[in-house]
């Protein structure tokens, strides 16, 4: 990209800034903005953000002549860059901004800090990076088209994330970073994620799970192997239980795994509409919608089951995006809710299977003693535990600021039973 003509020899002149007044939020992912065009005419436009990010307080019009260094300075100052040029050049500019952020790297205070301070500094850096990169904005038509040169067709990706375009729906501005995320999510949804734990399809290939935008993908498959290989609870006398509950269905992968292992009835719950739609699609595609019933419900369905499984988010903390809802559990609310209600929803000789990484323990966010205390306070005891070490890419990346903690991470399937159970199993610890 060519640099604009500088006003002074020492510093390029940025485009003229345009003030933006933020109006009250509308429903869903839209906020209203009021701005003035180059002729000084007042314009009204919608700001769209799936993550609820606030719109920039200032806007400049940007095109192919904007230098990357100028763009970086403006974005770092909190100025939004409304792109009017070639779409592919906007993508290149976003990459240039990312490279500048990456070159700065984590500060010495972050790399030398002990956990959990190092983790908190890491999250702050991630949030700053997302904020700066989110300042590059593209215009989105009411029907989800991007009316820029060489812009890709993003209608399907936007429809999957935002829902169908409604009559009278306004044009909107959206960060290019979000658009790229939507495109990536749409591709994952289309091609799916191979899940070896689900076995092979008729072509001899691993069965696939197709994650929807905003629904956590089962890319980390080690925990699924734990469920695939786990010994059934005593209630089934060595056979699959007649009924199981799956708390927090997500993509439906655990429900599918239980059904494929022979559980004749699985009741799966979730409060996320997208998750339920995603699970329904995957189960129908796998031919498992018969044995699995999906309910829009928080935590437990009515009744009792010989097996209750739950894979809650493994880090206590506030999610900053839809996808982070599968990682961060504010105040460990889902984890503690599952433990507190489990006893009342287990059939005789049944078990609760809690699938949980101990990453939070190594980050200093939760101790093993806290977890064991919550289990005991819920009238439960540990009947056994199966462990596996992660094999995903980050666990092998020595440049990751959290590598020291990742090296020690273990994912466990905790077998939980009421303390009143007197039946002891050979594998109990």
Explain this structure.
The chain has helices spanning 68-76, 87-104, 108-112, 117-133, 155-162, 176-191, 222-229, 253-260, 273-285, 333-342, 359-362, 368-377, 403-406, and strands at 17-25, 30-36, 42-48, 58-62, 79-83, 136-140, 172-175, 193-194, 208-209, 244-247, 266-270, 292-296, 305-310, 315-316, 328-329, 346-357, 380-388, 411-418. The protein is of the alpha/beta class and 429 residues long. The chain folds into two domains: 17-189, no CATH class; 193-418, Rossmann fold (3-Layer(aba) Sandwich), CATH 3.40.50. The strands form four sheets. The chain has a seven-stranded mixed beta barrel. Strand 2 and strand 3 (42-48) form a beta hairpin. Helix 1 (68-76) crosses helix 2 and helix 5 crosses helix 6. The longest helix has 18 residues, at 87-104. It is globular and about 75 Å long.
Q: What would you give as the CATH superfamily of the largest domain?
A: Vaccinia Virus protein VP39
Tell me, rounded to a whole number, the average pLDDT.
Answer: 89
Low-confidence stretches: 1-12, 22-28, 422-429
Structural class: alpha/beta
- Would you tell me which CATH topology of the largest domain applies? Rossmann fold
Distance between the termini: 64 Å
Number of H/I helices = 13
CATH class of the largest domain: Alpha Beta
